[in-house]
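BUG: 3D viewer hangs when loading the predicted structure for this chain

Environment: internal workstation, default settings.
Expected: structure renders.
Actual: progress bar stalls at 90%.

Input used:
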Amino acid sequence: MPVFYCPKCWKEFKDEIRNCPFCGFNLDEFDSLSYEDKLITALSHPVADYRINAIKILGTLKSEKAVEKFEEMLDREDILTILEIVDVLGKIKSKKAKKILERLKKSRSKVVSERAENVLDEMNSID
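Structure tokens produced before the viewer hung:
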């Protein structure tokens, strides 16, 4: 019997159904989402590697739509994921992305603050 996963809450279930039995997400709705929205949904995946891959692709797409979700992730992610978000914010270059990078320059983590500063310097040298 195949195993299914809800793309919203990522819980496992065994039956092919229309709505997730845990969060109520309409599974048919997922097919109608844009590629970008599916990637943003993947930012909640329980496996860090999947989240990082989604972050990288959203950066390649320069997804301004993902910036708010990236900001939410900063409070709960590990350092490697945060560094990936910092790099991607530098690719997106929106006002909101720059504002988040400015905040990250003041991070207690020296690695994060230095990376944010470097990314901002690169952004400013291109402008």
